Predict the 3D structure of the following.
Amino acid sequence: MLIDTYGRVATDLRVSLTDRCNLRCTYCMPEEGLQWLSKSTLLTDDEIVRLIDIAVTSLGIEEVRFTGGEPLIRPGVVGIIERVAALEPRPQMSVTTNGIGLKRMASALKAAGLDRVNVSLDTLRPDVFKSLTRRDRHQDVLDGLEAARDAGLNPVKVNTVLMPGLNEDEAPDLLAWAVKNDYELRFIEQMPLDAQHGWKRDSMVTAGDILTALRTRFELTPEDTGERGSAPAERWIVDGGPHRVGVIASVTRPFCAACDRTRLTADGQIRTCLFATEETDLRGALRSDAPDEEIARIWREAMWGKKAGSGLDDPSFHQPDRPMSAIGG
């Protein structure tokens, strides 16, 4: 197992397929983009599948989430999913995507074995979408969401970040839209993972702000499921059900004590936390012909050193050098 000194066991693997993206969201990267990872440093399809195989068969991973950047722009994504679906035991698989490629790819992803999707959408207003993402692709995301739902990639989850002065007033409208379309909406507090390092704690829209806004229109009842466990989202039943809304409060209500995640970057580095400042190289071991047992040992050793928390509540917190697009969501 991937266990740390605090007794937490990682069963959820986040795999970044690329650091590149076809949007330029203001809270993620500058308009001109970033200096992308060179092709030679990226894991090949075979290397990704091999590492996932080791994680699933030797290290107890039960769920794999493909991220980026934008994972659907990686040419081999469907083939990777198909090969991972053939592993024994078969892990649950999901993709976090901006949704632009879903209209074209949803059916193929489902046929390959993908179980569900998380789609990022921060606004219902096309003009605000263009301001936030610096691209005029709002309708493409809406079409992608419909395609995912129609393909059976359910539950379709929508991830939303609210930004002061741009879309912070949209929380109730977004929830009404999600309920109407049978999507599960999850609000995510903006995190200090932007390439520009422009995040400011005192200007972010907090979980408390979001819940206050939602309650102006909806009755929210805490979901009664006992212990929250490792789930990042706190969930509420909307107007008596059956729909639910979640809030991921990584900054103001951290859930590090029950974290069950391990992360693999597109260039083959293990990260024990989104906010980690250290990484452990697996690519070097792969390309030095290390056996599976040695790679598993390196991975276990990395996870054993996982820190107690993200450190976001510490005044001395230092933002990671890598932005979110290069880490994987």
User: Anything to note?
Assistant: The radius of gyration is 19 Å. The CA atoms of residues 45 and 80 lie 6 Å apart. Residues 2-327 form a domain with the TIM Barrel fold (CATH 3.20.20.70).
